[in-house]
Amino acid sequence: MNFVPLALYSAALIAYVWHFTARHPAVGRAATTLLVFGALAHTFVVGMQTMEVGHIPVTNAASAISTFVWLLALAYLYTEMTTDERAMGAFILPLAVGLQSIPAFKPVIEQRAEVLQGPLFGVHVSALLFAYASFALAGVIGVTYVLLFKEIKAKHLGFFYARMPSLQVLDTMNYRAIVIGWVFLTVGRLAGFVLAGNSPSYDPRLQAMSLQDPKIFVALVCWAIYSFEAFAARALGWGGRRSAYLSALGFAIVLLNFVPVSYFLTNSHNF
Length: 271
Description:
- The chain has helices at 3-22, 25-53, 61-83, 89-105, 119-153, 167-197, 204-207, 214-235, 241-265.
- By secondary structure, it is mainly α.
- The chain folds into two domains: 1-112; 117-271, no CATH class.
- The radius of gyration is 19 Å and the shape is globular.
């Protein structure tokens, strides 16, 4: 079922890139329409899987990635519709298509271990996935900010200057995405600590939950980076280009934790 959203996201990606390079309004509207249909199809897939297994599909890496892509698509659509700016689509959709290819080509049967029963697990995972979606937006905005800044600094106002929002708008969008993501990341982390403390200790995956586990260690590094960016960095006047670099670095670490670490290195989150 994940192939249908993947096909629609891929078509939307082509349309967004076409719109970004040629700036045809009709192509831009078509790109948004394709993405809306992709998000609707993905909503149907997530809904069907939820009805089939009795919970949101997030208990293995492939299903969590699929749910993350769904939230990313919804978050980007909200951003586009509230700002009337489609330029980010050419940068967001490659990420969505690349990640959605994993559950589409390597689906995994959704199984829920006893330790994952209860609403607290849903809060933990949902909050983290929403935080990661916000950080994905911030990361893409950070990259585009740097590209535009370099073009302006070189006094060569061309490709990106004609297609991107102003640096001030990008900086504001970046900061909002970081603050929202940090709030949900903190909620997700706290819910995870409570869940681990109240779960049966006989499960070996719970016994492996410590700073020695790469996934937990990298997650805390992510929290530290985004905490600095959201609060201390602002207080020190680290907005603009420095904040953009932090957003890009933070999301690179999120992706590292979300895909290779989740698949190959963790001992405590392989549910």
